[in-house]
Amino acid sequence: MTRSLTLVRSWKFWTADLHSAHPRISTLRVLGLAVCPLLPPLLMASEETPLLPDVLLPSKHELVYQRFSPLYKKFVVATVAWCGLMPLFLSGTFSPSIPQIAKDLNTTGESVGFAVSLSVLSTSIGALVSASYSTFYGRRPIYLISLPLCILGSLGVSAARDMSDLLFWRFWQCIGASPGLVVGAAVVGDIYKLEERGTGMGIFLAGSLLGTTLSPPIGGFISHFWGWRVMQLCMGALALVAFTIFMFAFPETSHPGTRGIDKFRQSGEAEHRWSFTAVNPLRPLQLLQSPNICTVSAAGFFLLLTDYVLLVPLAYTMGKRYNLDNELLVGACFLPCGLGNMVGAPVAGRISDRIVAKWKNKRGGVWYPEDRLRATFSGGLIFVPLSVLGCGLVTEYIGGPIGLVLNLLLLFMNGLGVDIVLSPSASYVVDVMHSRSAEAMACNAYGRIIFHLIV
C-alpha cells in the first residue's frame, strides 16, 4: 500500500513537472502515457497548476496596452492633439496681427517681431523642461501645471499696454503651451503598442497640424474684425477647455511603475508622498549622443528647411510673381502645405505599422526599429526634392493662373512629403527610447526649434 501511494505521488509530481516545462503537452497527465518518467523533473507544481497553456494568455507587455478601450484611446489622442495644435496656433495667429499690434502699442513691426522669436525660444525651453519632468512625474501633472500658465499668459498678452508687458506675458503663454507636441507624442507611445503606434502617431500629428493649416486665416480674420486682443482671449479659452478635460476626464498614461517618482518611492528615499524632486531640464539633450536620435533629428531639420525656404518668402516670391497683393490671398497659399501635412501624417503612420508587421513576420518575430523608417523613402527621396525643384521652375517660367495652380499643387506635395518622413520618424524615436519618449521627442525637435528661432 505504501509503495502504491509512493508511485501515485511520484506520478503526480512527474506529470506536474512535465506540464510546467511543456504546457502544450499537459494532456499527457490525463492520458497517463508512460513517457513521463523519461523526462527529468524540472519544477515542482501543485494540483492548482492550470491545464490551459500559458501561451494563450496575454503577456504583461500586451496587457499594459489594454488598459484603455479603443474608443477611449481615440479620446486621449484627440485631447493631446488639441494641446498639440496650441503652440502652432499661438505662432500662426500672432504673425498676421503684427502690424495691428505695432500700431496699438505705438512701436515698430520689427520690435513686435522680436516677440515671435522670443516665443519660439520659450517654447523650446518649455519643451525640454516638460519632457524631463513628464518622465519623472508622469504626463497628466505636466498638463495640469502648464495649461494654467498658458491661460494666464493669454490674459496678460490681451491686456498688454507696452512691449515689456507683451514680451513678459508672451513668454509664459508659450511656456504653458510648449508640452503639447513632445508630451503628446509620449502619450501616444504609452497607449499604443508597436504595431499600432505609427497609426496613432499619424492621427496625433494630423490633428496637431490643423494649427499650421487653420491658424493664419483664422488669426487674420479674428484680428481684422474684432482685434488682436480678442484673438489672445480665444487662445486662453482654448487652454481653459483643455485644462477642464485634463482635470476631470484624462488619465495618467505612463506605464505603471515606470515613472521616476514611482521608483523613487519604492526605494524609500522619498520622505513623504508629496515631496518634490528637481530634475535636470537639459537632460534630454544627452540623447543627442545617440547616433540614431541625432541622425533622425538632422533629417527632420533638412526636411523642414524646405518648408521654410518655400513658405517664409512666399509673399515675395509667389505673391509678386502672381500679383497677390491681398494678405488674405497670400495667407490662403499656406493652406495646401498644411493640408499635405494633415494627409501625409496618418497615411505614413499606417503604412509604417504595416511595414513593421510585415518585416517582423518575415524574420519569425524578430523586430528591428529601423524597419519603420522604410516608410520614409518615398517622401524623402521623391515628394520633397521634386516639389522644391518644381516650385522654383514653375515660379520662374510659368506665369498666370496656371503657374499659381501648379505652385499650390507643389506646396501640397511638399507638405505631404515632409510628413511622410516626420510621422514615421517620430514613431521611431518613441520606439527606440520608449522609457524616455517625451525627452527623445523634445531632443528631436530642439534643433528644428532653434533653427526656427534663427530664421
From TrEMBL:
The keyword Transmembrane helix applies. It is found in: Membrane. InterPro entries: MFS, MFS_dom, MFS_trans_sf. GO terms for cellular component: plasma membrane. Pfam families: MFS_1. One of its GO terms (molecular function) is transmembrane transporter activity. Keywords: Membrane, Transmembrane, Transmembrane helix. Residues 76-455 form the Major facilitator superfamily (MFS) profile domain. It is a multi-pass membrane protein. The chain crosses the membrane at residues 75-94, 114-135, 142-161, 167-188, 200-218, 230-250, 293-316, 328-352, 373-395, 401-422. This is Major facilitator superfamily (MFS) profile domain-containing protein.
